[in-house]
Amino acid sequence: MSDISEKNGSEDRIDDIEKVANSRGSATPVDAHYDPKFVKKTLLMIDWRMLPLLGLLYAIALVDRTNMGVARTAGMLKDLRLDIGERYSIASMIYFVPYIILQIPANLVLRKLGAQTFLTICVVGWGAAQVGMGFVTNWGLLCVTRVLLGIFEAGFFPALVFIITTWYKRHEVQKRLAVFYLCSIVIGGFSSILAYGITFLKGKGGLNGWQWIFVLEGILTILLGVLTWMFVPDFPDKARFLNDNQRKMILDRIEADRADSMPDKMARQKFFAAFFDPLTWSFAIMFMASTMPAYAIGFFSTIIINGMGYSAAMALLLTAFPYVAAAISCFFFAWLADKTRMRAVWLAAQNVICIIGLMCTGYTSSPAVRYFGLFFINMGASGCVPGVLAYVSPLNLTDWHMRLTYDVQHSNNITQHSKRAVSTATIIAMGGVGGIFATTVYRQEDYPRYIPGIWATMACQFTMLTLLAINSFVFARRNRLYREGKRGPPEDTPGFSYTI
């Protein structure tokens, strides 16, 4: 956009803001038009309807995609001869190929199918693939079932994030993403204890313990698919569990917050503009850097603990506790981010925590200290995953009185449904690249310390710190120029400002 004078730019900004406010019927925050008790009650109803089930679904998704490490420790290594070459890494990695390729196509059809139908297909499909993993007889068939798992899980996580961000104002999102994500962390962590219990079924029905892990967890996933069809809410404009007044209130809040309560039409030009936006790829690399250590923990923590000298049973039990610490840390940093309306500084703090943990696990000799390092790795990595998503997702146009005084409040950084659909899918697809990275750099030949993998994981953390610094500089400059009237509004949305 061309530069304009400060005076004319300020007048144009006021005109733009007044048009936005007038189009919404008032120059005051939209919540003031509704009874606060009505707003609070409706939001609480939505929270209870949405977050527990979605959190449980994502927890099961994480368990089903990363339980290879648990199954390997429970006997799969010998039965399928995964100790030969890089078979375990290949079987773990192959899941991410369809997961990455199908991210954007899946997110583009999400709106047409509706959240309820789309998510049900995903959940039942990967549950069936998970059951199939319990009956494979060689590592080649294991790879086939992992590919099917990746196909059905491909659009699941971006769909969850996309759905949540369409229901809430921007500064209401990160705590909810964190609640949804920390539920998955806790459940995912304790899945190793559940797996330990399931291994006692060894020999029943002619199946080994690791086979029962896949079969029972797959059946549970299919049952959750039925609950998905019955209870998962659709988008606000389609949700049937709200009455007309509640639906109007939710849509009014989102429209006042970021002017995109109703979806804009996807077009080729919009698709390519969103896909080739440098910010999209900056966010995507940040997300890859966050998911890489998270996947490394998911696939290799039980193996690393086992390599410290602990028995297989003790390794399964000890795997759970770093996840509890991660859940607490995840919510704490999310609370800090929403309270301070800052993102980058808290993401950077968690990167540093992760680096400290990697150094402890990789380079100390004491098993206790190495195990303690897993706590820090998990705390740092797990908190960054929802943190990056909230950094990307559109989260609060500044309040009306704040806009008039040109205060720059911290909001998040992508508006419009079409752009968010493309960018979210691209970003989460790069999370799959993080999974490929994690499963290939932690090589069998480097067992039990995996030093090259440790350094690759630290490189991801330093990359994210660099991108956070660059993004913060760019966002601060754009916000300042807009505040001074020297450029148009960020994201072409009057009153919008980037989160820093």
From TrEMBL:
The keyword Cell cycle does not apply. One of its GO terms (molecular function) is transmembrane transporter activity. InterPro entries: MFS, MFS_dom, MFS_trans_sf. It is found in: Membrane. Residues 50-500 form the Major facilitator superfamily (MFS) profile domain. It comes from the Eukaryota. Its main location: membrane. One of its GO terms (cellular component) is membrane. Pfam families: MFS_1 (PF07690). The chain crosses the membrane at residues 50-68, 88-110, 117-141, 147-167, 179-198, 210-232, 271-304, 310-337, 344-365, 371-392, 421-442, 454-476. Keywords: Membrane, Transmembrane, Transmembrane helix, Transport. It is a multi-pass membrane protein. SUPFAM superfamilies: MFS general substrate transporter. This is Major facilitator superfamily (MFS) profile domain-containing protein. It comes from Ephemerocybe angulata. The lineage of its organism: Eukaryota, Fungi, Dikarya, Basidiomycota, Agaricomycotina.
